[in-house]
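Students often ask why we bother encoding 3D structure as a string. The short answer is that it lets us treat folding as translation between two languages. Here is a chain of 132 residues written in the first language.
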Amino acid sequence: MKITADANIILRALVEDDKIQTPIAKRVLEEADLVALTLPALCEFVWVMLKGYKESHERIAAAIRTLIAAGNTEADVAAVEAGLAFLDAGGDFADGVIAHEGRWLGGETFVSFDENAVKLVQGNGEKARVPA
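And here it is in the second language, the structure alphabet:
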């Protein structure tokens, strides 16, 4: 079976905090011929891990790297790597994904009220600004 994993499946499998759902989530991910890891699901996973579980950026990044390295997963690796670069630098995973996808869609300047995100984009040699 080829599946698209919702963030709650990824969370249950990696966090292991539910006696009933954790083994089911692990089994579903392991038995799938293909697990599609969508950008929205990964962004939601990161947000819940940071805000709900208070996990460190390092542990979250390691979990995502483990997920995308699994033999049966597919993801937009370039976008995931862009998000991970932001996460590794102390920024927001979703902002890295947004900046990457925006460039891919033809955007030339990343615009955000998040000054840290703007600095991270500029640090990669890309155009970015805080609007005034």
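Translate back mentally: Helices lie at 7-15, 21-31, 39-51, 57-69, 77-88, 93-104, 115-123. Keep this in mind for the problem set.
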